[in-house]
Design goal:
The chain is an alpha/beta fold and 328 residues long. It is built from eleven helices and 13 strands. It folds into two domains: 172 residues, Thiolase/Chalcone synthase (Peroxisomal Thiolase, Chain A, domain 1), CATH 3.40.47.10; 147 residues, 3-Layer(aba) Sandwich (Peroxisomal Thiolase, Chain A, domain 1). Bound molecules: oxa(dethia)-CoA.
Length: 328
């Protein structure tokens, strides 16, 4: 009998501090009307507190997940964390999270696929379950975007926020769980969405800091064009190869980068607004955390057997989709 990886629990965490569009209008030349109509964002959360980083939010999400799923930390087999804002270049944030929440010395590692990170990590995690190797895999998407945002750049600072989400994957022989996924990438995206400094090509120096290369840069229009086409295409692709029509899909769970991109994807899939998970208005773009935060916010509306299509697009470029049958 085929073993699949079922999501058996979900938990999200966002910091308490809220930054509204009006707050941003006090520091850069922007306004609530522009941000709302161009992106759908009204406010975002910002992690404040000395020494608090991505691992803090991820650990909060995982602690709650262990509690909700009644899981003993010592029973977890593997932890994967998707992030572009690790606490450090190394060690990996997943290593730190395990120690912070009391998960013993199991394997744990980070995945870097920008806004598609959670989708990539979920796909990887599900393979360990399907292979029969592990019984409990935690997949995290977490980003402290405020740590790499240039609050003098109005084209990017309005978009992003901080947050984390985590899911538990366990084996099932029922016809549910992660049914299929499509992963894509194209390194020509390098020049459109990137953080130039701090890596091995331009190690941190006075020069990189003077040039503000330690911040995220995005050519919004170019990324928009790629995102709008590819997120819709990859969602249509996974529906076609699984013989799903718009009517079969209970929920689209899209990466929350821009409401206009989400609307275009839903239209292409032939599904109505009432089936689209949306929380961009509250959190902005939390990069790897958007999809698990959506699942967390909508958990009470999900029913066993619901067909979910997850779709994401981000830096790299990376993009992808996953077809999930909700397991509880
Ligand atoms: O998650 C990773 C993937 N990322 C994405 O999917 C993001 C994709 N890109 C986008 O979502 C959009 O391109 C943005 C929301 C970033 C920008 O929206 P846009 O409709 O593409 O605006 P634009 O860049 O074409 O700028 C239009 C105008 C410009 O002024 P002019 O040249 O027409 O006078 C900008 O300077 O809006 C101006 N502008 C702003 N005005 C007020 C740019 N940023 C702002 C701002 N407030 N924050």
């Amino acid at each position: 009998m085929k073993i699949r990886a079922a999501i058996t629990g979900i938990n999200g965490y966002v910091p308490d501090d809220v930054m509204t569009n009006d707050d941003l209008a006090k520091i850069v030349d922007t306004n609530d009307e522009w941000i709302s109509t161009r992106t759908g964002i009204k406010e975002r959360r910002i992690l404040k507190g000395e020494g608090l980083a991505t691992s803090h939010m991820a650990s909060e999400a995982v602690r709650g997940l262990l509690k909700k799923t009644n899981t003993d930390a010592k029973d977890v087999d593997l932890v994967i964390c998707a992030t572009v804002t690790p606490d450090f270049m190394f060690p990996s944030t997943a290593n730190l999270v395990c120690t912070q929440v009391g998960i013993p010395t199991i394997g744990s590692f980070d995945i870097l696929a920008a806004c598609s990170g959670f989708l990539y990590a979920l796909s990887i995690g599900s393979q360990f379950i399907e292979a029969g190797k592990y019984k409990k895999v935690i997949v995290i998407g977490a980003d402290k975007m405020s740590s790499i945002i240039d609050y003098q750049d109005r084209t990017t600072c309005i978009l992003f926020g901080d947050g984390a989400g985590a899911v538990m994957l366990e084996p099932t022989t029922e016809e549910n769980g992660v049914m299929d996924f499509v992963l894509k990438s194209d390194g020509t995206g390098e020049n459109h969405l990137y953080m130039k400094g701090g890596g091995s090509r331009y190690p941190s120096s006075h020069e990189t800091v003077d040039n503000r290369w330690h911040y995220i840069r995005q050519e919004g229009q170019a990324v928009f064009k790629f995102a709008v086409t590819n997120m819709a295409d990859v969602s249509a692709e996974i529906m076609e190869r699984n013989n799903l029509t718009g009517e079969d899909v209970a929920w689209l769970v899209p990466h929350q980068a821009n409401k206009r991109i989400i609307d275009a994807t839903a239209k292409r899939m032939g599904i109505g607004d009432d089936k689209v998970m949306l929380n961009i208005q509250k959190y902005g773009n939390t990069t790897a955390a958007t999809i698990p935060l959506c699942l967390h916010d909508y958990e009470s509306q999900l029913k066993k057997g619901d067909n979910l299509v997850l779709a994401a697009f981000g830096g790299g470029f990376t993009w992808g989709s996953a077809y999930i049958k909700w397991a509880y």
